Amino acid sequence: QLQLVESGGGLVQPGGSLRLACAASRFTLQYYPIGWFRQAPGKEREGVSSISSSGGHTNYADSVKGRFTISRDNAKKTVYLQMNSLKPEDTAIYYCAADSRPTAILPSLRGAQYDYWGQGTQVTVSS
């Protein structure tokens, strides 16, 4: 059973940066596309960014394009989300997830596509 654990969340002022990490407890992470999702009170779950198994393809929500960067280090079985120029509206619980059966070349931003989920890490952007 693949297990994912997020880390790196916390409190940051607007304009600041955080780097989230998603670490796998099994070696199979390297074969799966990985997505980052977030959910805030009163809002639907949003696909933030995703990356293909090799790292060759990435996908971003319009709301974070140009500010967030997803990357992966398969040797470390870890996927990162670098978040810059953070805004209060980025406040949410952030989850990483693995897609065990990808259906397209570009990694998906649909939560229903993903099979394994981490427990989430809180990101709060406030002055």
What does this 3D model show about the protein?
The chain is mainly β. 0% of the residues lie in helices and 43% in strands. It is built from no helices and eleven strands. Strands 2, 4, 5, 6, 9, 10 and 11 form a seven-stranded mixed β-sheet that branches. It has a four-stranded antiparallel β-sheet with strand order 1-3-8-7, with no helix packed on it. The chain is globular. The termini are far apart. The relative contact order is 0.31. The mean pLDDT is 94.
Short key terms for the protein model shown above:
globular; mainly beta
Concise structural overview:
The protein has no helices and eleven strands. The chain is mainly beta.
Mean pLDDT reading = 94
**Molecular shape:** globular
Helix and strand sequence: EEEEEEEEEEE
Radius of gyration: 13 Å
> Number of helical runs?
0
Note the topology.
Blueprint: E1 4-7, E2 10-12, E3 18-24, E4 34-39, E5 46-51, E6 58-60, E7 68-73, E8 78-83, E9 92-98, E10 116-117, E11 121-125
